[in-house]
Amino acid sequence: MAGYGVAAVAAVLVLYPVFFLFQAALDVGDPQVRPPTAYGFDNFNGIFQYPQILLNTLTVSVAATVMALVFGFVMAWILTRTNVPGRHLFEQLMAVPYYLTPLLGALAWSLLGSPESGFINQIWRALGGTGHLIDINTAYGIAWVMALFEGSVAFVMIAAVMKSMDPALEEASQIIGASRLRTMLRITLPLVIPGVLGAAIFVFAEMLGSFAAALVLGTPNRYYVITTAIYQLVQQYPPKIQVAAAMGVSLFAVMFFMLFLYRRIVMAGSYVTITGKAFRPRVADVGPLRYLLLGVCVLYLLAAVGLPLVTLLYASLQKIAVAFPTAENWTLDNFRVAMTMNAVRSALTNSLLLGFGTATIGVVLMGLLAWLIYRSRLPGSGLIEYVVMFPQAVPRLVFAFGLMWAWVVFPIPIYGTLWLLLLAYLTVFLPLGVRTIAGVMLQIDKSLEECAQMCGAPWAFRVRTVTIPLLMPGLIAAWLLLFIASIRELGASILLMGPHSKVITPSIVESWFGTSSELTAALALIQTLVVAIAMIVLVAVTRRVGAHPVD
Amino acid sequence: MPASLPEPPASSSPSKPHIEVDRLELYYGSVPAVRGVSFNVLPGEQLTLLGPSGCGKTTTLRAIAGLEQPTAGEIRIDGVIVYSAKQRINMRAEKRGLSMVFQSYAIWPHMSVFENVAYGLRVRRTGAAEIAERVHQALDMVQMRSFASRRAAQLSGGQQQRVALARAFVFSPSVLLFDEPLSNLDAKLRADMRIELRELQHRLGITSVYVTHDLEEALAMSDRIVVMRDGLIEQTGTPDEIYRLPNSAFVADFVGSANLIRGRHRADLDTDGLTALETPAGHIVYGMAYGRLVGAELVVSVRTVHLRISAEPPAAVQNVWRVPVQQTVFQGDFTQVHLGWGPQHLIARCAAMEPLAAGREVYITVEPRHVVVLGA
Amino acid sequence: MSDSKKSNVTRRTLLKAGAAMPLLGIAAPSVLAQAPLKSPTKIHDFMTNADVEKAEQEGQLVFYCHENEPGTAGIMEGFRKDFPKINTSYVRAQTGALYTKILSERSAGRFDVDVIQLSDLAPAVDFQKKGGYEHYVSPETPAYKADHLSSPAGSFFWTGVDPAGIAYNSPKVSAADAPKTWQDILNPRWKGSISCKISASGLQFVQWYTLRKLYGAGFWKEFAKQNPHAFDSRVQLFDRLAKGDDTITAIGEYPAYILFKDKGAKVEFVAPADGLPATPLIVGAVSKAPHPEAAKLFVDWAMSKRGQAWYQTNPNLYYGSVRTDAPPMPTGVRLGDLKLLYPADWDDYAANRDVFAKEWNGMLGL
């Protein structure tokens, strides 16, 4: 049946590269010779030569998780449980740091927080301080950036938990006479903790696989975490591919275990948060305190969005970026050079094209998969779910590693082309797309489709007239998500780019390591602007489409 | 067949069954939902599957619809096999030519009322003019004509229900399946809709299979009832038969409230076609067997409404006892009186009356024809 | 297109024969590698043996280069200016990584590259041995000394030289503390605030090798104690230097110094008396290239006065030219004026690649 065909496609996409990853990790023969001549576990011993890296990874991930949870909890509390003005707007804005990409955040914060040249430190010294106020190139600096930009998922999860709490539980406590504080400590907190725990595990797993912040902020100081170490080992000369693969497999094992734990503890078996009855949470009136809380929200968004953008703009307009530039230091050269750089022009076009392709094909593919897993009654759908969610456990970089080997030897010459990147994106975004569409799909009452059946409608007619119109908001959301995800993608693209298939985010990284930071800032801003424009256009178009109901 | 039934659908002869369910079984993995169910539905009749939740009635209905895959058995519609485990036939739901009203109404929120109702006709590629005519006709029949251009999501529960109904019969299906369509409505609306549905079904003369757990509904609307429990059929019959002559304790108590009395058969006291039973407390009860097998031990059922209470000794000779009142419970339209009867406890339902003081002695009696011997 | 395909086949089989010859120690006569024999044509102001028309028909040039992004883009810009009908595309990676990439591609049967530029002689020689270079003798060859060509000529040539001294951030370093000799980079004063390049860099390898020869193996072990920061590109090094993120760099490339001085950065350059380690920048056409005529044309262009002028004056490049008739660099300095340190024994140098990589990577923590 067509269903199995789609499942087979997904399985190949996901498992084929993983096989090669494992093969590389177990290859103890001559690295130049393919296929491997000898197999063994020696490469895994190689990991223990670098205990510092493991320690670094743990430090950074734990710190970032804690920070992300704190931000997430505080913001979730403020935005779902208090009557701070502009709640709904802020909730939407919380997603912006994610769209801005952690790379941008890392670049900006590097400009802000480098011990010598960082703007904040320059201002500090100008105000009379000595040395530096902050050093962003440390474990906590990296964790800070990671939490700010990759931590919004913690907010989303905790907010969802808070929203799904039955207010009657708290009201019961208050009617008995407990104070608000006591209610919060004895009733609310314990109810929320399982959800927060789940978020913690999930966020920790994500932080383990984080790449951009550590790359920009850690590498100059030779502070490696496992993902940047893998990258370095692959890029350096001579490359230590096998050890890198072994590291990748180890990281994958840990992440897989964490996500397995998460699934067991929180979701009781399914990767989709089945939204049950949504309660309206009690919003507490905090009186004049809400202006303080408003200030907190604004501050957070400033740190995560406003400040980085302004910093990049500030830097991009100077010849040599300093906090207090002289008149001669201002220039538009950086933008001029950036616009003429071949790599930029083609990289941007490629990224937009790829974004379009990934989103469109992705929505169809993932829609079918979501339907297959959660709606059809085909045997083996549980297994397919596992396969589809697999890439979540593998850091993008590691996955790209496998992809690199897998597709080099593939008979069809897609290596080094945009097609390879398309395949890579479709694969690594499977969990994201399927989860989003499934979430909407599950909210649609099955009987709506069954009724169409009973009216005599064959499958295609039903899907066209009932399923898709009902799914449309979800499909559009998924499309937009996929589009943005593919444009901001770094970990996989950085290994798979070829001369004719440059994409924008890795190009910005290349620029950071190969040209001046001012030029890079200009590049990053151009990228952000183009993406923002694309997003606005898309949202406007889809809103128009969505407004016309299907007749 | 009662003479009031309309013309049966042209495709089937009066006595040949329209739907045949033959030894149907449905297991979810190892969990049984339907354990062997057989019945027929005659053309134009409304057959109701009645039973408590979990008895398999909805599963059976959905199996007939084609929305569930049975494990064993056969289903035939108009003589055509739509499901057969042996022959590995399982016709898709959309091909079976049936129609269904869902418990949740399943009104499509993104379409107007008109479009909802027109759907089945559009599937059948009916012309636009004909669609308009038939849809309006159908909406008329359910008194929803003025809502035709409304967005379906703006309707109340009752209104949605009517639209669902119109949608279900607009394309003239030969069978209508109902999956507890009234259970989401409030009591008053339910009572009204019951009557409307019955009238509609008669007017259209469509064969209907109806699923409900509500006894009153089943009794009011059905031509025949199939009482189910735990995946099996307890009893099949007309509402009257089921009510008056339950053949098991379960049916007796489920279909109306009943007192169950156990005892020894006193064949020596049998007289005039009556069966005598002696309770452990020594009471002699006269009842009727109605053709059922009478064993050494038997159980009889006495409907609470058939127990008459009087202050003075009644005229009857058999089945008269003097008993104390334990409790009276006022229920509005009727009063429930709890009486002590030896070690056992009897319940009588009477039309509303003055409460009887607890402990007061009264006479109770019941006609032997209302004492029904239950099947083994 | 089919024409060149046909001749491709012929050339490939011939090349196989020709490439095998150096292994046997026989110089491949140029007549074997070129069929049919053509006389050089003049295009713009230089001579080429390539079929310019065919090259333009091929319409593409794929360039693998070690230079940073603006530099590589700059080279391509120069070529495109003269041959606008040929689209250019490039891949840049530091020499070590670049070389690995092209080898692994070729071992997987992918031949996507036309011309390769490396910043290290060792991999170039290795590539020549493996038959990676197309054997092509440019008519511009006579303008170069034999030292600055492959041996035998026809595989690659030195398109430029990149010398490195010491550079420092002037506001942070007083004249008294300023470094003057190579030994000065070992001063503990610079610990944690000194930079160098990564092990994939050709120039870094040269510096390691030459200074090791001069000052012994202990020199670099001492240097390791400085906890240097390593980077891929000279622009990055000078970027940090200019902003004060690093106080001093142990490998201040002259071209970068010129570039940043132009931008107004407060950096100073020191040319130690013992000499400036310099690496040749090697360009060669690749065998089994998808656009062979374009490749040959590029080589000729790069070797020509025109191309060399571009390489010398483009701000992202500022290479020193080794062409015998080259003008001075934009700063007025000639390559000959500088005391350049090359490895004396290129074979010993090549043999030490792995030793260097291991030691250097170990110093940097990987």
SSE order and pairing:
The complex is a heterotrimer of chains A (551), B (376) and C (366).
Chain A lengths: L1 H24 L16 H6 L3 H31 L5 H7 L2 H5 L1 H12 L5 H8 L12 H12 L1 H12 L3 H10 L3 H29 L3 H7 L7 H10 L5 H27 L21 H28 L16 H8 L1 H33 L6 H9 L6 H13 L9 H11 L1 H14 L2 H9 L4 H30 L4 H4 L7 H11 L2 H31 L4
Chain B lengths: L18 E10 L2 E11 L4 E5 L6 H9 L6 E6 L2 E5 L4 E2 L7 E4 L11 H11 L4 H14 L15 H13 L5 E5 L7 H18 L2 E6 L2 H7 L2 E6 L2 E6 L1 H6 L4 H6 L3 E8 L9 E4 L5 E4 L9 E7 L4 E3 L9 E11 L3 E8 L2 E8 L9 E5 L5 E3 L3
Parallel strand pairs in B: 3-9, 3-10, 7-8, 8-9
Antiparallel strand pairs in B: 1-2, 1-4, 4-5, 5-6, 10-11, 12-13, 12-15, 13-14, 15-21, 16-20, 17-18, 17-20, 18-19
Helix pairs in contact in B: 2-3, 2-4, 3-4
Chain C lengths: L1 H23 L5 H4 L7 E3 L2 E3 L3 H7 L1 E6 L3 H14 L4 E6 L2 H13 L7 E4 L2 H9 L27 E13 L24 E4 L4 H14 L2 H7 L4 E3 L2 H10 L4 E6 H10 L3 E4 L5 E10 L6 H12 L1 H9 L26 E2 L4 H6 L1 H12 L2
Parallel strand pairs in C: 3-4, 3-5, 7-8, 7-9, 11-12
Antiparallel strand pairs in C: 1-2, 5-11, 6-9, 6-10, 6-11
A few lines on this structure:
Helix content of chain A is 73%, strand content 0%.
Please explain how this structure is put together.
The complex is a heterotrimer of chains A (551), B (376) and C (366). With 551 residues, chain A is mostly helical. In chain A, 73% of the residues lie in helices and 0% in strands. Chain A is globular. The model of chain A is unreliable at 269-277 and 547-551 (pLDDT under 50). Chain B is elongated, with a radius of gyration of 24 Å. Chain B starts with 18 loop residues before the first strand and ends with a strand. In chain B, 22% of the residues lie in helices and 34% in strands. Chain B folds into two domains: 19-97 and 174-244, Rossmann fold (3-Layer(aba) Sandwich); 257-373, Beta Barrel (OB fold (Dihydrolipoamide Acetyltransferase, E2P)). Chain B is of the alpha+beta class and 376 residues long. In chain B, the strands form four sheets. Chain B has a six-stranded mixed beta sheet, sandwiched between helices. Chain B has a five-stranded antiparallel beta sheet with strand order 2-1-4-5-6, covered by helices on one side. Chain C has helices at residues 2-24, 30-33, 52-58, 69-82, 95-107, 121-129, 202-215, 218-224, 234-243, 254-263, 292-303, 305-313, 346-351, 353-364; strands spanning 41-43, 46-48, 60-65, 87-92, 115-118, 157-169, 194-197, 229-231, 248-253, 267-270, 276-285, 340-341. Chain C is α/β, with parallel strands linked by helices and 366 residues long. Residues 1-35 of chain C have low confidence and may be disordered. Chain C folds into two domains: 2-161 and 279-334, D-Maltodextrin-Binding Protein, domain 2, CATH 3.40.190; 163-278 and 337-364, D-Maltodextrin-Binding Protein, domain 2. Chains in contact: A-B, A-C. At the A-C interface, helix 13 and helix 25 of A face helix 4, strand 4, helix 5, strand 8 and helix 9 of C.
